[in-house]
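Good day; I would like, with your permission, to put a structural problem before you. What I wish to show you is a protein chain and, alongside it, a tokenised description of its three-dimensional fold. Thank you for your consideration; the sequence and its tokens are set out here:
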Amino acid sequence: SHVIMGKPGYEVVGGSITLDGADVLDLEPWERARAGLFLAMQYPVEVPGVSVESVLTEALVASGRGGDDVHGLMAAEATRIGFDERFLTRPMNVDLSGGEKKRNETLQLGVLEPRIAILDEIDSGLDIAALRTVSRRVEAATNEAGLGVLAITHYRRLLTELRPNVVHVLSQGRIVAVGGAELADELERTGYGAYDGNEDEG
């Protein structure tokens, strides 16, 4: 996920990542975001002194949607996913629980309407009810706005809520199996041992 979004410190030694025929690897991180890529991080960072509202306002202005009712959009999105609206004007992710941080990421996804969302273990730290809420919102975005989703997870429960079109098994930096939702069911029954020799890793 970090390579796709252009985080410094990674060296790409081969291959390409294309979007609309252009190699994403040639773009700066902000250009990737402007092209419609969005990352919901496994561990959302705290940003003291900067509110969710100010970040999303700047992002919408940069994308040409500065005329939108930003606060209205965020308030509606917060209501939709059960996120306390008071958090919108507080410092981003500061003093939020793990589940609240994941809802905050989901709120950003709903407001920004990206083309491709990379969900990096978005199920981590969520209870069943919160996972269902987040999953329903992501699913709605795929239906309402044509969102494409790359969901990264170690657990089948996310795939139960977000029934995937395609499942890839990544082991030691390589895709070692590709299948439909039935592959996730198989992994739940048998583990990953057949793919990497280690039952505890995915």
